[in-house]
Amino acid sequence: MAGLELLYNCVSSSITSPRDAVVCFVHWEIVKNGFKCLGTGDEPQDGEKSSELLPAAWNANNELYTLRYRSAEDKSSLLLKAITVDSTLIFNLMDPATDKVTDLTVNVSDYVDEANLQTFESVFKNTEDLAKKLKSSLLPAMKREGSERTEKKARAPYADVQSNPDQDPLRLPHRAPLTAHPPNWPDPLEPFAAGGADLDPFGRRPGGMIVDPLRSGFPRSGFDPSAGIPGVLPPGSVPPGARFDPFGPVGRHRPGPDPDHLPPQGYDDMFM
């Protein structure tokens, strides 16, 4: 409660009721959060100066307390009103810029000893409980400044990502710029561009529509079509290195088909 004792001793001579003591306590909690008091009443007056102290005639009306505050940093304002209802004080704290209002009802006798109004050491009781209620119910109206700063900090990384998308850790980078490695497409103006690899007997062009088993990447059988196929192709029929798709099985001495593979229709002799 640093600072509250000095404040209370400054106004102790003007405190005439337990309600005054509670208002003094609430005032100090607001000041602790970076606000200073401008004066009393709903409207500003000439010659007002912000101060951590309570203004003159702050408790002139024990039925309705009205105090105005302003932040020292962003100039945001607050309007505090405390209304007396029997043995309680109903506090309302409003942010005029957003019309946000918070309220708290305080049972005065729970926190102030009426027999010791002039003695700071014994006037307050259960101060931790009162401070907790103020922070949870009344003072959230003052969090606009802090929430705006937090929102700006939260938006800043997103703005940086938009200005420089390469810094986004969730973005998958390009393998390479599209202009760095243009696609290996044939020239559409070339007459033999489409299927050009199939028309080149020397295999100098990549790609093509015909599958070449001799250039598929699998181990070759050692068969050379240029050497000819006995009984099928004479030697020299296929140019050396030309693309050649065999039209029959490589080798002349392969076993014939098993007749059981394709039995005659309606034949059920398993020993055929």
From TrEMBL:
Q: Which domain of life is it from?
A: Eukaryota
Question: What InterPro entries does the database record attribute to this sequence?
Answer: PI31-like, PI31_Prot_C, PI31_Prot_N
Compartment(s) where it occurs, according to its Swiss-Prot or TrEMBL record: Cytoplasm; Endoplasmic reticulum
- As recorded in UniProt, coiled-coil segments are none
Per the record, which residues fall in region Disordered?
Answer: 141-183, 221-272
Residues of the PI31 proteasome regulator N-terminal domain: 12-142
One of its GO biological process terms is:
proteasome-mediated ubiquitin-dependent protein catabolic process
Q: Which Pfam families match?
A: PI31_Prot_C, PI31_Prot_N
Ranges of Basic and acidic residues composition bias in the record:
142-154
One GO cellular component, as annotated: proteasome complex
Q: Where is the PI31 proteasome regulator C-terminal domain?
A: 183-249
Q: Does the keyword Coiled coil apply?
A: no
UniProt similarity note: Belongs to the proteasome inhibitor PI31 family.
What role does this protein play?
Plays an important role in control of proteasome function. Inhibits the hydrolysis of protein and peptide substrates by the 20S proteasome. Also inhibits the activation of the proteasome by the proteasome regulatory proteins PA700 and PA28.
Name of the featured protein: Proteasome inhibitor PI31 subunit
Where does this protein come from, organism-wise? Electrophorus electricus (Electric eel)
**What lineage does UniProt assign to this protein's organism?**
Eukaryota, Metazoa, Chordata, Craniata, Vertebrata
